[in-house]
Design a protein that fits this description.
Length: about 220
């Protein structure tokens, strides 16, 4: 049994109506960036300001810090509006799965490419609370603007391990719905699991080298991990 289970947010534990990717894409396309669906997909799951900068680059738009900051600000505002109008909800079976893991002694944490501002907005709407509150469903939450490098770097996972006091990578599993989730887990030396609740197939995760492929997070509590 693993002592720490780390989960991505949108597409893994939370159904956000795909607003994050719709708004992210719109934020750079409105500035003239042009790219394919496959090129856009490479930046799913990454820290959003970094994604914006790279999408401008591959989309043919020279991007200085001013443009990136302006676009990121627009992205945050539009996403917050979308979430207020169409609140995110837990994916089926996720809350029960997280509770079962914690009852069995496994610490549960979230990592995300969202900024803390957006993550707390989502968690508050879900009623999952934020760190330090009573009856917390989660042991830790680390956001993309709180580490030096987002996915596919391992920094988010390492930050969660530090927060939860877990030092052995072999006792950690990281679960996500994108290739960069798998790459981040592999870089951290932890067990990687891909879930099919996002936009990828089992074959995509196998190609990426995931250790496990699950239908959803709800299945994880039934696995011997």
């Amino acid at each position: 049994m693993k002592t720490l289970a780390v989960f991505d947010m949108a597409g893994t534990t939370i159904d956000d109506g795909d607003h994050v990717y719709r708004v992210l894409r719109e934020s750079v396309e409105r500035e003239g960036a042009v790219f394919t669906d496959a090129e856009f997909q490479q930046w799913m799951g990454t820290e959003k300001k970094w994604a914006i900068r790279n999408l401008f680059e591959i989309g043919g738009v020279p991007a200085d810090d001013t443009l990136v900051e302006r676009t990121f600000g627009w992205f945050l505002g539009e996403l917050a509006t979308a979430y207020r109008e169409d609140p995110p909800v837990p994916l089926p079976g996720v809350e029960d799965a997280l509770q079962r893991l914690r009852s069995a002694g496994t610490k549960v944490a979230l990592t995300t490419g969202f900024s803390r501002q957006i993550a707390d907005l989502i968690l508050g709407q879900l009623g999952w609370g934020t760190e330090g509150e009573e009856d917390l469903l989660l042991d830790a939450v680390v956001c993309g603007d709180e580490v030096s490098a987002g996915r596919p770097a391992p920094d988010l996972i390492f930050a969660v391990m530090e927060k939860t006091g877990v030092t052995d990578p072999e006792s950690v599993i990281s679960v996500g719905d994108t290739v960069v989730d798998v790459e981040s887990a592999k870089a951290a030396g932890v067990t990687s699991a891909g879930v099919l609740t996002g936009h990828l197939t089992g074959a995509d995760f196998e190609t990426a080298g995931a250790d496990l492929v699950l239908g959803s997070v709800a299945d994880l509590a039934l696995e011997t991990v």
